[in-house]
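dumping these here so i dont lose them again. two proteins, back to back, each one seq then structure tokens. dont judge the mess
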Amino acid sequence: MLLSIGLPLIIEKLVLIVVVVMSSLVIAMYATFAERKVAAIMQDRRGPNRAGPFGLLQPLADGLKLFFKEEIIPNLSSKFLFILGPCLAMLTAMMTGAVIPWGDKVHFFGRDISLQIADVNIGILYVFGVVSMGVYGIMIGSWASNNKFSLMGGLRAASQIISYELAMGIALIALLMTTGTLSLKEIVQQQQEHWYSWNIIKQPLGFLIFLICAFAECNRTPFDLPEAENELIGGYHTEYSSMKLGFFLFAEYINMFLSSSVMVSLFFGGYDIPFVNDASLAESIGTNWVALIHAGVFLFKAACFLFLFMWVRWTIPRFRYDQLMNLGWKILIPLALINMLATGAFILLQQNNWHF
């Protein structure tokens, strides 16, 4: 009996895992194409336009090129760890999507199926734990390369990510004090009533700190010091080629997409459609169509953040390393602490019915 009850649930989750993983890979693949197009528009040129109509097959051409390229493993490298590094970076990048609510629910075969792989009540802690593990892939790969430039890039990545995770975590504490839950699903549901119930209205400073730290966590310009080609020849993936290099590059774009998805869930209502009553919409067009629209709205919001990542890359120059550390330790962490204390004071005043 337990098997008959659990088997449909297992099948649902497996299908959802496959859909999320494949969607993340496709979005990351075409994010590389979008980035080159955005850069081309900003620099008044065409961008990729040869492979397929309008250049749409360029990501496939790039992927095939990486797949069929000669694979080179340096003789003096630690071969097992050299292979493990990019695999770990890719694995941790994909794992973040397990707790993100991509939509409400669909109704198939007499069952309500949630568009979330795992609704754990410590979803934000899970995201932080997985993101923290991502630096191990970079560190292992850089150390195993036996290259001083790679090792320098890995050390930069580790110190940068540790520094900016502190400010990001403190900014999230203020958000958790406001919402009272660690579950991403509950945080999204709390923002469904009105567009002004989105957490960006309640925690604007917390969102700004989180956004800046997300750039640093993803090693994106102006925080791309770990792979600064001007001084480190590519940083932690200097010695990598073929699909191992592809794994590192893909992991960066998957991290961009999933970071955007986390920011949408935490601060912008998740799959909420602003100015629309979901209940009346479901009565008119059906639950499944509403779930599809929800997923589309969620992806549109995430795409806006992806565009922001690309826009910043081609607009703002790279920081010096001392500037990067000063920003993290001397500006963002104090701001996050002030925001957390102010949020706590405001909640305490509300609970005691005090007025300014």
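---- next one ----
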Amino acid sequence: MMHLHWEFHRADRIGWLRAAVLGANDGTISVASLVVGVAAAGAPQSSVLLTAIAGLVAGAMSMAAGEYVSVQSQLDTERADLERERRELEEEPEREAAELAAIYEDRGLDPDLARQVATQLTAKDALGAHIRDELGITETLRARPIQAALTSALAFALGAGVPVIAAVMAPAARVAEIASVTALGSLVILGGAAAYAGGAPIARGALRVAFWGALAMGITAVAGRLFGATV
């Protein structure tokens, strides 16, 4: 009796996970740095809050546009490759079958077995076999520009919401400190969650994100103090 073995692979998450983590981290770090920098320059709390909200909106739209353009370019390339493979299969099916067999032979199959596999896969779904084994395009890794854009924008807004809330709730004299602490706490959680979802060490992922966030906020605070003192 055959028993089916179901396996869970984290690679299935790579598309949305990448966009979500990048967006949330960028939102927290970017807007928190703006809040800390403007507060360090001595600006009133109303100006700090306005800067934070403007950074949230502009950053979310920028992330959406950047992800869409980038992933759409990838999708255009995939479509061009698919069309070329479709045309080659129609014009030179024997040559394409031999090319597929050579791929399987390079992966370790005997020449006869490689040809048999290529023949059977070609008979069932020639284009699908070439897409997967020649071009390396799978359903998991297919480009999805709209999904990437929406995920990035939403994640950025959620990440940026932490320093925005801090700017609203904190006492005017402590905005920079409270925004820094809350942002670092959020980055630790985000880094750890992303590492856990991807199967990486949680502590390392959390500390890595927190380090770069602290560095960004520290440099921005220094810049705010320097330029704020000369204005």
